[in-house]
Specification:
By secondary structure, this protein is α+β, with helices and mostly antiparallel strands. It is built from 4 helices and 14 strands. A 4-stranded antiparallel sheet has the order 1-2-3-4, covered by helices on one side. It has a 4-stranded antiparallel sheet with strand order 5-6-7-8, with no helix packed on it. Strands 9-10-11-12 form a 4-stranded antiparallel sheet, with no helix packed on it.
């Protein structure tokens, strides 16, 4: 009951404040967003907005004192969602704007946070960072793997397949192991609650052509 009451307090705190200063409050982000209770029910992770920018914060029940685990850049980074993977890791999906070929797009990146050590890590590998278009490359969470909390399924553009493939990623060291090649131009992959890939939808060809065109232009500039 205490945990439910605390969660209700976090969700309604900004609403109470809005009644006192309606016009100022409507122009501000909520103080606390996306509260997520850990599977064991002992911790709550939230997106906690500060004057310096959004943070991922953690509190252990019954305390309401939040410990900041990670901070993002103000007015640039946006937290799309946070999700527990077991009781040890928090997976964070954040995005930032990029301008390419006359169009704005949001690039999504994934991070893991070890709540035991406060260590955060971007889920990527050196092979991907060597791509010319890496700054425009998104990483998407397919499954947090309920039965394997130290791992997650992640999809991202793979130059070898010329499409979005699926990788099993170790959340502690960010090692990538490809488990699903992409021969059908699949852009979005979906898994069942057990983490088994079940279906995918085709990627908009325009996005792939933008990435490939960017790579071609960069090669021409080098020569």
């Amino acid at each position: 009951m205490l945990k439910i009451t605390l969660l209700f307090f976090l969700l309604t705190a900004s609403v109470v404040h809005a009644k006192d200063k309606p016009w100022e409050s409507y122009a501000k982000l909520p103080m606390v967003e996306q509260p997520q209770i850990s599977p064991n029910g002992e911790m709550i992770a939230t997106l906690y907005n500060t004057a310096e920018g959004p943070t991922i914060s953690l509190a252990k029940f019954p305390s309401i004192e939040f410990n900041i685990l990670a901070s993002l850049k103000k007015d640039k980074d946006r937290v799309d969602f946070i999700r527990w993977s077991g009781n040890k890791y928090i997976i964070v999906s954040a995005s930032y704007p990029e301008y390419v070929n006359g169009q704005y797009m949001r690039v999504s990146r994934l991070y893991s946070i070890n709540v035991e050590t406060n260590e955060s890590k971007m889920l990527t590998t050196r092979r991907f960072s060597e791509y010319r278009w890496y700054r425009y490359q998104s990483f998407r969470l397919v499954s947090s793997l309920k039965n394997e909390p130290d791992f997650a399924l992640v999809s991202t553009f793979d130059e070898k397949d010329k499409a979005y493939s699926v990788f099993k990623v170790e959340l502690g060291d960010s090692s990538f192991d490809k488990i699903q090649r992409n021969k059908e131009n699949i852009g979005s992959w979906y898994a069942d609650p057990k983490g088994v890939l079940r279906w995918g939808s085709q990627l908009i060809k325009k996005m792939i052509s933008l990435l490939l065109q960017y790579g071609i232009e960069q090669r021409k500039m080098k020569h």
